[in-house]
């Protein structure tokens, strides 16, 4: 074996890395167990608040190799929402409202018609909304000028009356993109403050959509309000430390009495604020945005003068008695002194909020004083994080003196010393308010507040007139850009709407974990037993490689920070079946070489060498399908694709290299090596058949099934599309005992206004999946509530059976169209990519055509049989997971086909004078055992998934079962015969073609 030492070193390194990253998961689980044991009373009841308090206490404490518990949680192999429970949301930022805002809410009839027309066009187009709006306006008013509508104060400096329509559209496009980015940043901050463990928020490329996953959420309504609420930007006056110090002294006296009376417990573990001041002050001096200073605009109005560096409020003992009080009394356990005033450890903010929300505590402070936290934590040397505590002065009626709606523009710039700053311009009304606010607060702080968090609290150096000003300070470029985006957020609202949503209850998540574990273990055992029974000691070595494979998959997932999902488990189970294929190819080659009477050393070398390129080609085509699934899929499909791609790579490495290390080590130690048993010797002895003789009956059979399938589809009124493709809402509802699906549907039809309604048993007999297309085009929260209310009204007659909603999902009509389009694109690209790769590898377009036609045949057969089964009441939805199954079958089928093509090419090379039809049958017969063994193994594994994998994956595994059968059939009776039929009789094989082994 060449490069043996490199393979050994690489194996050790990969194993060590996988073990290292998986260890975080074990440590996290250990800490969770300790927290649960700590919070469990004598009766075995877990106090969840006590458990959370324990986890909070170690959140910033080292628990593993100097990693804090927070860092351990960030690096563990997480569980997806379908395994853990939680909420998945896709939000869409409304470009319509952004464009209306830019136009000054213009009432121009042609402008409004163009907006409405663009909304209609967007339903069936992949173009950006701004492009569609420009086209619509051009059609409605060919000679119209958009600058007439958009050249206003808000767009000064960007759009003038002379601007062309293309220039206006370009500016609108940039503003829409900026608004989406601002919305993303605001949502990310809100989610971080929401306290969800391991949230995931990301922008979906090529769209104005933002995907959010929140594990463990138990209050979906609160999340919806949080995500869809408009950003609220305000400017507030700030109380100075000297002003609020007396009130803190009173608070400290009150809390001390409460604690002495045993009515208050504010003790906490190891905060030690008094010992942290020096390090914290140093960190704050580096990071604190309160160092920002507002400088009055110069006479020109386009630049800003910088204030002196020592304008920061002093926080020594003479001016901050409250901080001293906090360090010497009860408040010392909660607050710490910071350069800008008071602050607290992030983990203590909830306790402080609880104290300050008490009526008796609020009564201590003036009615126009409220308290807000800074948004950006400061990290000390010991990795503890602290936030500043601001005393905000309420304005008249409790409102802020200024809101963010007065800002026309804000952008990151540089001052005359090259340091990042933020410049902002205001409307005329805003300029007057700003001049008054700054004039009344010279030498004091003004807090810039978004969603009740202080983003900056600069010191005013003088009255600022003209509405132009700058904010300078200790900013990085990214921080300055973020603050500019925050300031702009108040100027141009970008409302969001939920276009896709799924809520998974924790009970369903636990059930999915159990089903996933059972299906994985059962699938692994089947493969292990079969390989030993068929290949003897060689099978045992293959099983060792298979265990390494599973270990590597989990380890790589952990390294990438990916979450393990139920479709991901399906990917692992499927990988187990497909991983056998490489070992089967190698072992079958070894058996062929052994039959020639070669020595064991030659058998090993030739077996691996001849099988290498075949395995490589087969894996590349399957990986290509996985990549396309990942690129175009979302949610469960993406999770499946990640696992599939990782599994393909690790399967190749373990089957080709690690298994060879084991085999050569066994051979070197003189132990008996065998790659055959009585079962293997007798199973495919004397196989002989003429595939080409049966090709025309096969063509007729396949065509008949496909036609019957589409006839069945027509009878049913079209394919049974899930909400992924049609839009709508679905609910999984449990009852105390079994209920008839037909009866429940009858009860719901009237409440759902006779719109499309489907009810079917979901897993257990007392669980139903209810799907309706009523109000599918209305993606508002009000429509969600309306449909849910109608559902509960319809279920009232079953109230004695205690109906409970376990999970919900919603897909808006617009996103359903996009899912359909991307599914079609993914299918076309998969076929095109495979066509090109096969043509490059085999030098003949006929091979590409045969392979692609066979793949298209497999996809159509799955759809047809689904339709026929649906006609007879055995119904499965066609959704994103179904498309993943079709693309996976395409990967499996081309894998099989490439192996056969490779053997045909080998025989063509060895027998250049023979025609193609003369080598096809021998090639098919020589690979027949490999084809059947691999297909049977995958079939068994998928059958386990179908039986034990749960209802969520039932449709996927059923499609896979059909696909495995007809994928094998098409490799034998469709792909190779098409190669023969499309090659001219007189054409001989290319003798110079390189053999792929």
What does this structure look like?
Helix 18 packs across helix 19 and helix 29 crosses helix 30. It contains 32 helices and 26 strands. It has an eight-stranded antiparallel sheet. The protein has a five-stranded mixed β-barrel with strand order 7-13-11-18-17. It has a five-stranded mixed sheet with strand order 15-16-20-8-19. With 997 residues, the chain is α+β, with helices and mostly antiparallel strands. It is globular.
Determine the fraction of residues in helical runs and give it as a percent range.
55-70%
Number of helices: 32
N- and C-termini, Cα separation: 16 Å
**Structural classification:** alpha+beta
Largest sheet: 8 strands, antiparallel
Number of strands: 26
Rg from Cα: 34 Å
Sheet with most strands: strand arrangement: 5-6-4-21-26-23-25-24
Mean pLDDT: 79
Strand residue percentage? 5-15%
Question: Are there runs of 5+ residues with pLDDT below 50, and where?
Answer: 267-320, 988-997
